[in-house]
Amino acid sequence: MSRLQQMRQQMHNGNIDAYVVMRPENGRYLSGFSGGETTLYITLEKALLLTDFRYIEQAKAQAPEFEIIDAGQDHFTTLSEVGQQAQRVGFEGDFITYVDFGKFKDGFSQAELISLPDLVSHLRSIKDSSEIELIRQAVKIADMAFDEALKTIEIGQTEEEIGLNLEFSMRRAGASGGSFDFIVASGIRSAMPHGTASSKRVQSGEFLTMDFGAIYQGYCSDITRTVFIGDPEDKHRQVYDTVLAAQRAGIQAVAPGRTGKEVDAVARAMIEKAGYGDYFGHGLGHSVGLAIHEGPNLNKREERLLEPGMVITVEPGIYIPNWGGVRIEDIVLVTENGCEVLTKAPKEFIIFE
Ligand SMILES: [Mn+2]
After folding, report:
1. Has residue 61 got a pLDDT over 90?
2. Dist CA 308 CA 127 (whole Å)
3. Residue ranges of the alpha helices (H) in 43-117?
4. C-alpha torsion sign, points 236, 205, 163, 346
5. Domain that holds residue 29
6. Could you tell me whether strands 183-186 and 219-220 are parallel, antiparallel, or unpaired per DSSP bridges?
7. Full-prediction pTM beyond 0.85?
8. Are residues 197 and 277 in the same domain?
9. What spacing in Å lies between the alpha carbon of 79 and ligand 1's midpoint?
10. 296 upstream amide cis, omega within 30 of 0
11. What domain count does the chain have?
12. What's 90's domain CATH number?
């Protein structure tokens, strides 16, 4: 079944006549069209792709299942014309702006508008073989960049320089860009889980956390490694070993039929047992795909069951204010029996003299 057919199945089950897609990743997922400025209008019979003059040829080539419409800059006028017959119209309530929703409502005054943000994201959560192949490639590119970083990191470099080198490595290897603003955080900054690269210079006696990833043909990777510069104290080793053990236990726990909550609890328990429970304030992981953060997640609240084909990060951390922090992150693919770790970069305690 094509993705469009699967979508229609979902719409049929939800008793929806039409569905409007505006989120770029959802549009790309369903149609194949990778350009910007697009709206999909899908019914059980019709599949329309609205875009403007700049993208018509590209859309025709990339989205053969869709009828391509040049809708100029105002997609809502065209939508209201093509949507005259629809009674129950689904849309992405988590994406449309308040202003656009007003226009949407005016154009579909006779219809019932139903916010169904999960319709496409549920399809997207199970990756098909072509998607898994692209994610493998994006992961491989990030692994290579980490390998190169290990050869170039020096005391006195700024976090920004380290981040830039990571990005150069990945672009050279075929990435179209980074999958988010890289986190390069050293010393006490490594206690900030989302400390983006700054002009701080890396010094001896510090942790250095690098959290980065590539986009390859639309698909994201995400990896975190923490290394040590100089001569570590016992506590540095102890914190690192605790995070690594929790990360390995989390990976062991990933399997179909488990909830994200159960997997999170396994890794969290190890960090709590070591006495660092208060210093692990975020969830264990998130899915990745066309977007860097997708559902389902691994966290204290996630009730969804893991299924084969999901691709998810496992990334525990310990962050001690005014001291430093450690996070280790791999991407895993949920399989029939457990999971396959896609990330291959080394994760033993690495020390730069
Ligand atoms: Mn992540």
Report:
1. yes
2. 9
3. 56-62, 75-82, 98-107
4. negative
5. 3-124
6. unpaired
7. yes
8. yes
9. 37
10. yes
11. 2
12. 3.40.350.10
What's the CATH number where 216 sits?
3.90.230.10
Shared-domain flag, residues 30 and 71:
yes
CA of 349 to the centre of ligand 1 (A): 20
Task: Tell me how far the alpha carbon of residue 313 lies from the centroid of ligand 1, in angstroms.
Answer: 6
Tell me, in angstroms, the distance from the centre of ligand 1 to residue 192's CA: 14
Distance 283 CA to ligand 1 centre (A): 10
Cα(297)–Cα(260) distance, integer angstroms: 6
**Cα 213 to middle of ligand 1, angstroms:** 9
Question: What whole-number distance in Å separates Cα of residue 222 and Cα of residue 180?
Answer: 9
Q: How confident is the model at residue 37 (pLDDT cuts 50, 70, 90)?
A: confident
Q: Tell me: do 259 and 173 sit in the same domain.
A: yes
What amino acid is encoded at 218 in this protein? G
Confidence (pLDDT) at 299: 98
Contact 330, 290 (CB under 8 A): no
Distance in Å, CA 291 to ligand 1 centroid: 11
Backbone φ, ψ for residue 151 (5° rounding): -85, -20
- Tell me, what's the pLDDT at 1? 87
Distance of CA 293 from the midpoint of ligand 1 (Å):
7
Q: How far apart are CA 217 and CA 233, in angstroms?
A: 43
* 285 C-alpha to ligand 1 centroid (Å): 6
* Percentage of the chain lying above the pLDDT 70 cut: 100
**Per-residue pLDDT, 353:** 81
Q: Note the pLDDT tens digit of each residue in 104-124.
A: 999 999 999 999 999 999 999
